[in-house]
Description:
Strand order of the largest sheet of chain A: 6-7-8-12-13-15-16-17
CATH architecture of the largest domain in chain A: Beta Barrel
Number of domains of chain B: 2
Order of helices and strands of chain A: HHHEEEHHEHHHEHEHEEEEEEEEEEE
Number of helices of chain A: 10
Radius of gyration of chain A: 45 Å
Shape of chain B: globular
Strand content of chain B: under 5%
Number of strands of chain B: 0
Number of strands of chain A: 17
CATH class of the largest domain in chain B: Mainly Alpha
CATH architecture of the largest domain in chain B: Orthogonal Bundle
Oligomer: heterodimer
Order of helices and strands of chain B: HHHHHHHHHH
Amino acid sequence: xxxxxxxxxxxxxxxxxxxxxxxxxSICDDIPNGKDQKKRGGIFFIFLIGLMSLGTVLFYPxxxxxxxxxxxxxxxxxxxxxxxxxxxxxxWESPIEKRHILLEYQNPxxxxxxxxxxxxxxxxxxxxxxxxxxxxxxxxxxGSFDKxxxxxxxxxxxxxxxxxxxxxxxSSLEEAELRFMExxxxxxxxxxPLEKISFNLKIEEEEEEEEEEExxxxxxxxxxxxxxxxxVHMGGNFIRNSxxxxxxxxxxxxxxLNDMNTNxxxxxxxxxxxxxxxTGIFLQSxxxxxxxxxxFEYISNDIVxxxxxxxxxxxxxxxxxxxxxxxxNGIQEQTNNASxxxxxxxxxxxxxxxxxxxxxNVPLLMGYQIGKGIxxxxxxxxxxxxxxxxxxxxxxxxxxxxxxxxxxxxxxxxRNNLLMKVQNGIxxxxxxxxxxxxxxxxxxxxxxxxxxxxDAVFSQKENEFGGSLGLRFNLK
Amino acid sequence: MxxxxxxxxxxxxxxxxxxxxxxxxxxxxxTVSRRYxxxxxxxxxxxxxxxxxxxxxxxxxxxxxxFTAWMRRIVINTALQSLxxxxxxxxxxxxxxxxxxxxxxxxxxxxxxxxxxxxxxxGMPDGFRQVFNLNILExxxxxxxxxxxxxxxxxxxxxxxxxxxxLKKMLAKRDxxxx
Lengths: 476, 179
């Protein structure tokens, strides 16, 4: 081994004992560390915010004078265990304006293109570009900070409590801004650890929104607490009746009634009123006149002999023998003689009897009106009390006969004159003018309890589905 | 703590990682610094300046090459920058000594340890020492050494011959004393 090889072998990996603590002490003040980077970032942040605040003050020189301001600080989102919270907002407002600053970060950072390219040289250039970008996009990137420049004890909120307290209730907007600027370093130092944080300063102009809100408030103020309306409605219902027996031995009869009566209908007219609270809750009542037709329709099973007689070329029909409607069963017999020609036909007769009932009803409904525009929706629920004022017609009896009754306030043989129904409905209200609206609705009514009389052999339930069309007039 | 952790930590300016880098690599880098310096005090100064440079420029380090080599290069550059450039001019005189002495017997140097070798190297004139280190220990060619030290290639060659002769003379002297 040559001398030079001997040197290489001995020296290339030879460690020399070094007092590393002393060495560290001698250099630690001269090397860059996180604090310096943070400080620089903080200074830049303050510089930018300061410029923004100055611009704001200059832009609104008169409005800001002698106004009391209040600074609100709120955390945008809760701190998540993975160290991600998106944004927090700072709002300061005065009686004449409200400015909202949203601080948010992105991870990984998405620096603005111009910054990435390094096209901006001086801080003034950058600031000018920021402001320009802010005008265009409402977003300013205010810098990028390394994780380690921000790394400290994780805090669930971006601000420590004492910092927040210091910012509460400043005496003026200027003071609020000053305090805010003082707080910026605290924002950075109290931040949560992340690989890279890029702070964006987003300015949202809320004046227009505020104006709209103010107008809404004025409109809402002008809305009276209660609104009184009267309405005229008309409608029609389809009724499904069901009968049940009250006493033993009449099940066949009740079955016949159920078979006979499938379709009923009614028409009704309502003069009503409504009290509408500004919350949308309303009470509705009125007087409803209703005329219902209950139809009993059945096949009589009679063999009908219809005679058509022609005499002297005259043809006549025996009216007494002609039922309301006749179905031919196809059996026909023709008899001819010298002077008369008679045709006898045998068939079944469908008999139809009607029962007319007139009622006065008082609905008591509670509802909720949804919407504040031209078209509103209403949901109603309540009861309707009724008084049958008149019956007119025939009803089949258990003995296959017909019981005819009628007259004003005449008692029905099978039901009381007083009745009650539960009603649920939905309606649409279309505003036609300031004081008139059109109401189109549908509802479902049913008897919670069967209608009957003490000595009646059956009881009855009416379930009905109806629709109504009406006009409402605003009184106040 | 891996080397990449330390690098990343230092790139982010975290003191803990910076200190770890100093503790872990300063013994090796100190040897490099000593080889290029007249004495240990100068070597300490060079090492100190080197670390400051390392930390200030560590964000530029790209993990393509060896991190140790990158730091060694910084230490060497720092040491060379602290060198008085006139040392080469001074030593240009005496061209008659360019004849290389015959090779030295291993018996004379085989017993020498690292510290003794370092003392020998530190005792060399500055110009000899820089060229000797760059050529023999770092493996640079004379053209590269010329570029690094801003001297001609022939100057680098002559400095190396002289450095070798100087070392042989010193070894012979030590051998005589030892005997």
